[in-house]
Each structure stands twice: as C-alpha cells, then as structure tokens.
Write a structure and sequence with these properties.
CATH topology of the largest domain: Rossmann fold
Function: Methylates the class 1 translation termination release factors RF1/PrfA and RF2/PrfB on the glutamine residue of the universally conserved GGQ motif.
Helix content: 25-40%
GO molecular function, one term: peptide chain release factor N(5)-glutamine methyltransferase activity
Number of helices: 11
CATH class of the largest domain: Alpha Beta
Shape: elongated
Number of domains: 2
Strand content: 15-25%
Distance between the termini: 76 Å
Strand order of the largest sheet: 5-4-3-6-7-9-8
Structural class: alpha/beta
Enzyme class: transferase
Binding site for S-adenosyl-L-methionine: 118-122, 141, 169, 183
CATH architecture of the largest domain: 3-Layer(aba) Sandwich
Binding site for substrate: 183-186
C-alpha cells in the first residue's frame, strides 16, 4: 500500500466518526512516517512497510473509536512550540493561544515574574518563557504526574527560565508576580459536551468545577491578590458563556481594569484584571 492509497482508505474509515477525517488521516500518517505533512503530497507513491501499515491501521482504529489524535501521537503543537501530551491532562487548545498573545502584549517589566496555575502540559508557561528568555516563569499543578509531563516538556525545549513544581493552586506558592495566568477547570458537571468528542477522553479533574464551573476561578481570583505585585495582572481562561460571570467575580474581589478577550471564533475566552494596593 502506498501513501495515496493509505490516506484514501483511512479517510473513508474515519468519515463517520471524525469531524475532519482527511486531516486526521494525514496527521496520523505523517506521525507513522516521521515526516512533515508536505511529504505526503510529494511522496504519494511511496510504499509503506508492513510495520508502518500495521501501526497506521492501529492508529486509525483508535481514532475511529474517538481517541484524540494528540493522545495517539503523544504530541501537540502550541504557539511556536511542540509539546508532549498524555492522558494525565488536557490537550492544549488553539484558542488558549489567544490568552498567550494577550499576555505577551501587556506592559510588563523586562524581567517580569510570571506564575502559571494548573499548568498541565506547561503550554502557557512554556510559550511565554520561550518568547521572553528574561522572564522568570513559575508553573504549578496539583498532580505529580502532570508536573512530570510539564518538566519533560521544559527539558525538551531547553528552557532555563522556568521552575515547575507541585501545588494545589497557590497553596505552596511563595512570592509576588507581575503576571498570573491560569486555564482552570470551568465546565459544569452536567454539561453534555463532557460526553462528546475529544473531551470525553480527557481527565474530568482538568475539566469540571463546581458552582456552574466557576469554583476554581473563585479560588484563583481570591488567592492571587496575595501574590500579585501592585499593578500586577491576572489572566484566566473560561468558557464562552462565562465572560460576564468572571468579570463580576474579579470586580467582587476588588480587581480593576477588568476586561474579557475573545478566541479565534470571537467567543469570550479569557478575562484579565489588575490588582492595585491602596497605598497611603
């Protein structure tokens, strides 16, 4: 079987189960062949080995059963970096790049101190650190296996300006920061989307929060006040229908300059707020 035949067969097999069967078929074959997507076009007549055919067949069967492509390949591109992923945490989403872009445009000190809460793969923290080698970035997560994954990504990217350790939100964090970011669980436990698509394979601990999905955002907004410098900024990702509620939470905890940013689909996706200490 050559590349063209493999792609045609896989696309047909995924037609009823994947929202993007041709795209998935290409990504999975590129992973099997350890090549760029463009090589699939240039090498359409290349014949797959028996081992490659079997691996590709296994990959397509897993995708047909609903497993996310990123969990199958063990990697996902985010911002300008590639990250290892596994089932211990969420797969980085493209829309979270909008939060990163916003953070990079803030007027922060040249040697800013940054904290990323619930870091998961390390996506936000490592993207910020890669863009700003002079920033001191700290990243924390509640779960040891997730911390290990984020550290593996840090080592893979050879980023020296990042410290990663275990903490349940801010419980084990010391010091003050110019910027605190977070992509916490924000889905209500009764949301039907939890049983659909890629989300159904991801850990509920990284998805679901009490109080209609807002409990962890409350915890972060309340606790971050003790860890932001005067004028520091908190930026939190949330659901597309939660913008108004999150703005109210920030205001209730005394933040100002509260505003909500949009994702690539122009949906509310993150809210930022400034913390100012009333000095005498």
């Amino acid at each position: 079987m050559n590349v063209a035949q493999a792609l045609a067969s896989a696309t047909a097999e995924l037609a009823t189960t994947s929202p993007e069967p041709e795209v998935d078929a290409k990504w999975l074959l590129a992973d099997v062949l350890d090549c760029e997507l463009t090589r699939l076009i240039l090498d359409r007549a290349k014949v797959l080995s028996d081992v490659q055919c079997q691996q590709y067949h296994d990959f397509i069967a897993r995708r047909a059963a609903g497993e996310p492509v990123a969990y199958i390949t063990g990697r996902r591109g985010f911002w300008s970096i590639e990250l290892q992923v596994n089932t211990s945490t969420l797969i980085p989403r493209a829309d979270t790049e909008c939060l990163v872009d916003y953070a990079l445009q803030l007027s922060l000190p040249a040697k800013a101190s940054v904290l990323d809460l619930g870091t998961g793969t390390g996506a936000i923290a490592l993207a910020l650190a890669a863009e700003n080698p002079s920033w001191a970035v700290t990243a924390v997560d509640k779960f040891a296996e997730v911390v290990a994954l984020a550290r593996a990504n840090q080592q893979q990217l050879q980023l020296k300006n990042v410290s990663i350790f275990q903490s349940d939100w801010l419980d084990s964090v010391d010091g003050e920061f110019d910027l605190i970011t977070a992509n916490p669980p924000y889905i209500d436990s009764l949301d039907p989307h939890l049983a659909q698509g890629d989300v159904s394979f991801e850990p509920k601990s990284a998805l679901v929060a009490a109080e209609s999905g807002l409990a962890d955002i409350h915890t972060i907004a309340r606790g971050a006040r003790q860890h932001l410098v005067n004028g520091g900024v908190l930026v939190v990702e949330h659901g597309y229908q939660q913008g108004r509620a999150v703005r109210q939470i920030m205001q209730d905890y005394g933040y100002d300059q509260v505003e909500t940013g949009q994702d690539f689909g122009r949906n509310d996706r993150f809210t930022s707020a400034h913390w100012r200490v009333n000095l005498p």
